[in-house]
Amino acid sequence: MPRMSQATASIRKPHGATMSVVGPDHPAADAGKTLEVRDLNHTYNVNGKTTQALKDIAFNVSAGRFLSIVGPSGCGKSSLLMMLAGLLTPSDGTIAVGGRPLTKPDPTRVGVVFQDASLFPWLTARRNVEFPLFLRGVDKAVRREKAEEALALVGLERFADSLPHELSGGMKQRVSIARGLVQDPPILLMDEPFAALDEQTRITMGDELLRIWEKARKTIVFVTHGLSEAIYLSDEVLVLSGRPGRILDRVVIDLPRPRSLEMMAQPRFAELREAIWHMIKA
Amino acid sequence: MATRDAVLGYGAAGAVFLALWEAAPRLGWIDGRLLPPFSDVVAALGAMAATATFWQQVQLTLLETLTAFVIALPVGALLGVLVQESRFASLVFKPLIFFVFSIPKSIFLPIFILILGIAFWQKVAFGIFSTVFIVMMTTFSAVESVREDQLRVARSLDASTMQKILFVYLPSMTPVLLEAVRVAMIFNFTGILLAEMYASREGIGNAIGVWGLGFQIKELLAMVLFVSVLAIGFNEAIRYVEAKCEHWRN
Ligand SMILES: Nc1ncnc2c1ncn2[C@@H]1O[C@H](COP(=O)(O)OP(=O)(O)O)[C@@H](O)[C@H]1O
Ligand SMILES: [Mg+2]
Predict the structure, then answer these.
(1) Are residues B149 and A118, on separate chains, in Cβ contact within 8 Å?
(2) Which PROSITE patterns match (chain B) (predicted)?
(3) Which domains, from first to last, does chain A contain?
(4) How far apart are CA A227 and CA A280, in angstroms?
């Protein structure tokens, strides 16, 4: 059943006509470039051994877009995401969110969801979601209200008082999404958030994420190594090469929304998947 | 329910044990002078509990034990965290702490007596000495049990160092620290009682020692019973709390 109302659909900006390489300005950029990445390079230096992880990364993401980053394992996807989260300082290059440089974690601008939900097992779902606000010293009543809102958004209001170990893997990850969204940041970063889930749950969570995205109207940067998952969810897919990760292409996914599982069987889906697969393989 | 069955099981085993204890000396299986019947020992305990001396002894020993404990626990935990978190200190002090841990602490008791005499602080000092190494060792694993991904979440939320310590490290370490508390108390109590037995004019340990030498088995066993109940009670209370936060460990 299509989850997105027509009204919401028509508000969404049309997708870029054709795919383009690393253009700084995307056709949909008029809503403001939420995220700008310039000339990013990163080299790890561990005990005198250097590993170049990322090379010449530059891209923008406009407000409200769903961008996936795909690439072979070890190509620097997680490193890139950690930099976008302000958790890792790039050797070189700049990152700006909402027009201001990002040099350290700022959960009011960027929410992060990690592969393992990483909830605090001693806190209930509600308190886990409240935690970012708690750290900021937000008033208790406000905290509660915001957490309730975020939990409702991910459909877990009934489980507010459950402890993480009482929740399933998918539910934990939804709590983690609620925690990422509770401060209403314009951007949500997700690093292979569903990789640890079973196939069935992963597909459900994908639809669930799209529903949340439609409703919360966030920019999402989603790292995955699953091509189908990337195509199914995204407006655009950023394809990285093997290490050191370079941007091979930025593919616009011109499948209509709302997405449905049947689309995966359409020729266009297969075409896109094939195209991306060839880039990575080459 | 599993816990209910377990309680019944313990109860039954305890009842059988006490029945045997009662019956063996009465039926002449065991010399009643070496092992008086359970009811006699309980009666002796009752008589003792009616005296002021008993409670003075108990009070003194508990005060020594608690004083040593409230010093050894935070000091051991703090040192444990500092050593574990510093690569240099880990390298230098960890082997040392492991070595000292493996030496029986009781052989140092005469040195403590030489330096500190036989009063209150000698026992407290020896209690701390008996306890602090096990606390440090448990704290090492407690720090290691703090999960990297949870720390990363805190960092991504721009938590301050203090916030990380209070809201991630501490709760994360709690299950292991509770275990430290439990095990440390056993070491601590042992140290204090030993110090009292070896060189003291007062306290539970001293009383047990004196009764042993004077062949006052009934009183001796009464005190043993009392101390056992105390120790088991503390141990089980902490274990109960530990079980409550068992799911914190992954
Ligand atoms: N903390 C680190 N120290 C040193 N090298 C690292 C570190 N993290 C990642 N790397 C290296 O950088 C490369 C990219 O890693 P990562 O960003 O995790 O890739 P991906 O998420 O795409 O699998 C890999 O070769 C990895 O070994
Ligand atoms: Mg990764």
Answers:
(1) yes
(2) ABC_TM1
(3) 18-105+226-282 (3.40.50)
(4) 10
Q: What does the pLDDT look like over B113-125, one tens digit per residue?
A: 999 988 899 999 9
Percent of chain A with pLDDT over 70: 89
Query: Each residue of A51-96: pLDDT tens digit?
Result: 999 999 999 999 999 999 999 999 999 999 999 999 999 999 999 9
CB contact under 8 A, B163 and A135: yes
What is the predicted ipTM?
0.84
Q: For ligand 1, is residue A47 a contact (CB within 6 Å)? A: no
Q: Which two tokens stand for residue B32?
A: 């009643």
- pLDDT at residue B87 above 60? yes
Instruction: Kindly identify which residue of chain A lies nearest to residue B153, measuring between CA atoms.
Output: A118
Q: What is the DSSP string of B79-131?
A: HHHHHHH-HHHHHHHHHHHHHHHHS-GGGGHHHHHHHHTTSHHHHHHHHHHHH
Q: Which residues contact A261 (CB under 8 A, 6 or more apart)?
A: A203
Q: Quick one: B15 exposed, middle or buried, by C-beta within 10 A (0-12, 13-18, 19+)?
A: exposed
